[in-house]
Amino acid sequence: MTGFAVRPITDEERRPTFTLLRQALHSPPPDDEFWRQHGDAWVADHKFGAFAGDRPIGITGSFDTDLVVPGGARLSTAAVDGVAVRADWTRRGVVSELMRVQLQDFAARGHALAALYPSEAAIYGRFGYGAATLGRTIRVEHPARLRPGVPATGTVRLLDETTAAAQLPALYQQCATTRPGRLGRPAAWWPIERNRQIRYGAGYRVAVHTGHNGEDDGFVVFRSRERATLDQPDRRAALDVRDLIGAGPAAVTGLWRFLLSIDLTGTVLARDRPVDEPVGALLTDPRRAHTDAVTDQLWLRLVDVPAALAARTYGAAEPVVLALTDRQLPANTGRYLIGPGGAHRTQAPAELDLDAEALGQLYLGEWRASTLWQAGRLTAADPSAAARADALFTTERPPWCGTHF
What we know:
- The structure is a single chain.
- By secondary structure, the protein is an alpha+beta fold.
- 26% of the residues lie in helices and 31% in strands.
């Protein structure tokens, strides 16, 4: 590292570092009106800048939240967002130093986990982040009709923008589930998400599902996108689903019923949905529902490995001993005995050797140890150890996050 220093940013440095971030994302710098309306959401807390003299050349930030882990416990988590480096300072160690300082800060503040959505998948594995959840892009083409036996689960109403802003944070809390990967949405998340919606285009609408018991139990954020062209003037609009959250299957089904019932639309497109969401099974013609892509979603990094391993539950199998090498946080390096009764440090001989990235992939249950072993992502003294780790780490339902940041 030469020519720059990493330190926390000050309040006076919020706008210059936000400008740096916008330019790195190929967006125009914030004008005075944008900053007046949205600058308060870009707080200095938990942000580190890389500075060449007084000039910012890199930025990383985070906010405090929690994450559901297998078994239902919620662990303190740092959600990393806004990582950027000036174009004339890339590949000079700036990101590496930002990540090093940030991880040390997470450990000092007592976070068990760190999480991010990477813009580029090749960057963050070397800092111990592993792809921990997958998201599915679902496209439903009209005519798409629900099967007669699909139950009506309640009613749906549209909210105006002011009402939605006031009600959605509490409703998201009410929709909390024990599904691994679900991320808490603190108060600071909501204005940031609103800013993203503005950046992606105006016109988002919000609908809320109310169950038969009269309680609100889900919501969807979506917008209509015009697809008519000169050559296809009668082509119907597409519904672009930004966020769909339900307290359970009934609410999710009710929201899909609503989306598929909106007139004058030809397609419903929903990204980052659970890989096991049974949209096709709801339809008389399941071929109307297509999977356009399945991609990595949330990337996870264990910051306090002993605490994180001890907090989740495990399946039924004979214990296995993992040997972890953590280059960024060497206090985590060591051997851990994992079994149905929990996890703790041990001096027993290692059966599986892995790094922090592979552990991040295993932790929520999305990846099988045997798959990572076959791919050379971990090594096994005995192949049966990978099979035992499969049974220990795999969860009943695949993990899913569903919260962009």
